[in-house]
Amino acid sequence: MDTNPGVANVEEPASWDELYNINLIPSELFVKFRKEYEGFRLGVNLEFYNSPINDFQTKLVLKPLSNERRWKFIYEPIHQDVRVLSKKIPITKFLNLQVGIGHNFSLGAIGWKWKLTSCLGGDNISRIRNKTSLGLCEGVDFRFGWRADYVLPEITGALGTGEPLFNMNSGRLEASLDRVEAIFTHGNEQYP
Q: What is the mean pLDDT of residues 42-58?
């Protein structure tokens, strides 16, 4: 029985170990080889996935280098898919639209897809997704895709209601390094 009926029971705060979780093991590893020639970039992507299942994909990518580029061509020899994708079209500051059309040779099927993407948002939780690039030297870059899911701290209180005068929820952070890309680019050759 409560000895002080005017004060509500408050749960003990979680330990610091329960308030954050940081995972530095990437679920995707990409090795990209790129060759730039006369305004175009030809790339060979080797993509390794270890979560939720182990998988491997190879992609050949062709796209123009100009700032006005509006498309890229992708061929996946293992799945026998050919796709032409638009560049990400900004709808708002944080929302992008991408449209594509493709053909699968093994199925003999043609179809189109669209995708809305954002660096913010998640499943009933606040989320930031971003890519950070690090240039090691000329022609060698590393790109890290990371994600942070968070619940901001919350401070509440009441007076005369039977609830505590001051209550604090410490929030929560779950961060992960989702993708590591090693990008090797061979630039334009200068001919006389």
A: 90
pTM: 0.70
Cα first-last separation, the chain: 92
Q: What is the pLDDT of residues 77-121, one digit of tens each?
A: 998 899 999 988 888 887 889 999 999 998 889 999 898 877 665
Q: Pick the closest to residue 26 from 1, 10, 48 (CA basis).
A: 48
d(CA 22, CA 148): 9
- DSSP state string for 50-113: -SSS-EEEEEEEEEE-STT--EEEEEETTTTEEEEEEPPEESSSSEEEEEEEEEETTTTEEEEE
Higher per-residue pLDDT: 168 or 144? 144
Half-sphere exposure at residue 78, Cβ-oriented, CA atoms within 13 angstroms? 8
**Does residue 72 contact residue 82 with C-beta atoms inside 8 Å?**
no
> Structural domain boundaries of the chain?
20-186
The two three-digit tokens of residue 89, written as one number = 């079209």
Rounded to whole angstroms, the Cα distance separating 135 from 140 reads 6
Both tokens of 50, joined, read 């270890």
